[in-house]
Design brief:
0% strand; mainly alpha
Amino acid sequence: MGDGDLGATLEHCAGEMRAAMASDAMIQAVNGDDPLMHALRTLSLACAKASGSSFSTLMAQGLLTAARFCHGKTTLSQSDFATLLHEVVAALAHRGGAGLGDKTLLDGLHALALALESQPAPADPRALMRATLEDTLAAFRQRPNRIGRARMFAERSIGLDDPGQVALLRMVEAL
């Protein structure tokens, strides 16, 4: 579905974020006041620089929302992370116009937040997150995409996974 540029966007974002991790700005961020917030802000800027695509814009907005949430925090509890994900979902919905149930990245992020809230101390949080996203993909597979480029091919999107949800799963698998 769409024009197939999501993989290229993710590759460019990852490259810019890797470069940002080794940059002077990141070194200053992690050694200064409010390191978590500044590190996430630096990654947000790197993502915005990587591409003008809608997905990179949403990734940058998500990271910027996370940075704001982390202001004054040096660590995040699992509960904090779930709350952060809810805030990211709200920010992305506002920015991109999608809503829950539209078969987008938002549905995966929302499912992760709910899973983290319902399992206060999973033995393996990454396994919980992977399983949650796999379940979310399965739950949405038979639905049409209602936003993004794939909305133009809504009927043809039935039976296919949403690219944004797949991208989120791949990011979690890379943790």
